[in-house]
Amino acid sequence: MSLLPRLNFSALTYNAAQWPLPGKALLGCALAGLVFVVGDLAYLGPSRQRLQHVQAQEVALQQQIAHKAPQAASLEKRTRQLELMQAEADALLHTLPGKSEMPGLLEDISRLALANGLLVESVTPLDAQPRLFFYEQPVQVGVTGGYHDLAMFLSSLGGLSRIATVHDVALRRDGKLLRLDLLAKTYWHAQAGGRGGQVAQGQPFVYDSSGLRDPFQLLAVQVDHLPGRPAGAPDLTRPRGILERLAVDQFEMVGTLSRGLQAFALLRASSKVHRLAIGDYLGPDHGRVTAIHERSIELVELFPDGQGAWRERPRTLVLNVNS
Asked: What does the alpha-carbon distance between residue 265 and residue 291 come to, in Å, rounded to a whole number?
């Protein structure tokens, strides 16, 4: 048997109708509050959650707008820069030759090596490598010579009229000389549109050995490299002597010899002693003996300046006091 009385809505409604006005008002407020709470939980709660989610999205979008506004402001400028870069890239691609220029590159390498007094050990063309818009044509080069002559050779490669780049440079000692191995690359267009026009080049780098020493030689036997002067071209038809096949850095001055009024310089190379007089030639750079002193000899060499002319370079070979 239940101890709680049953709720009789009919009796409650009848009794409420008999309540005084303040009681009715209080009951109405209670019912209205109950309806508001139920309606808020049933209908407004999900909407309030969606509103909070939308407000969070609004804050995130405002932050993105603030971050991207400067980029949008410079979009037109960036578009113009991109168009300009694309036009420059297209122009460079059209300057590439329409076919391989390997024969011309080999001729340029041999000419520059001989002009700088180097001995060409090997020139090995490699297979062309296809790229996205062009072909890459490599050639492996090995040359031998003095330090400054090798530097002049590399400087001359950078001044070629054709597009050529140098990679994988390796320098090592080879007896009294230096061996330089490098990979030179030229390029040609992968499509028929390549016209092979002239490439606009900036000011080429020209190696100047003035005041620089050969880091592979001892200070006591250094050969001085003084500033060069403009000079006429050498006689390329003149027969070259046996002492012109070796670089000057391979020779050591071991003494002098006099016969009457004529003086001779004694130079040693490869365990052999050679006698030179004023006017004799020495080294691959058309070096000519101009003066013989008790403790040194003076030479004048001719070398290309990379611009089609020749320059005169005085050099001094000092006596090796340990000989």
From this structure: 10
Pick from 186, 202, 183, 184: nearest CA to 194: 186
For residues 117 and 119, what is the distance between their CA atoms, to the nearest angstrom? 7
Whole-angstrom distance, CA of residue 277 vs CA of residue 280? 6
Q: What is the mean pLDDT of residues 218-239?
A: 64
281 pLDDT higher than 90: yes
Residues 107-137: tens digit of each pLDDT: 878 888 887 778 888 888 888 788 777 788 8
Instruction: Round to whole Å and give the CA distance between 57 and 66.
Output: 14
pLDDT of the residue at 16:
60
**Res. 264: pLDDT tops 70:** yes
Q: Identify the helix (H) or strand (E) that includes residue 296.
A: strand 296-304
Residue 204 scores a pLDDT above 80: no
- CA geometry: angle 296, 243, 289, nearest 5 deg: 35
DSSP-assigned letter for residue 193: T
* Rounded distance between C-alpha atoms, residue 270 and residue 138, angstroms: 35
Structure tokens at 268: 């040693």
**Helix, strand, or coil (residue 299):** strand
CB 149 within 8 A of CB 207: no
Taking the CA atoms of the chain, what radius of gyration do you get in angstroms?
Answer: 45
- Neighbouring residues of 114: CB distance < 8 A, sequence distance ≥ 6: 120
Amino acid identity of residue 178, one-letter, is: L
Burial (CB count <10 Å: 0-12, 13-18, 19+), residue 236:
exposed
- DSSP annotation of 322 reads T
* β 281-282/287-292 pair status: antiparallel
State how far the Cα of 138 lies from the Cα of 127, in Å rounded to an integer: 7
* Structural tokens at position 79: 């578009």
Nearest to 285 by CA among 205, 211, 223: 223
Q: Phi first, then psi: what are they for 79, rounded to 5°?
A: -65, -40
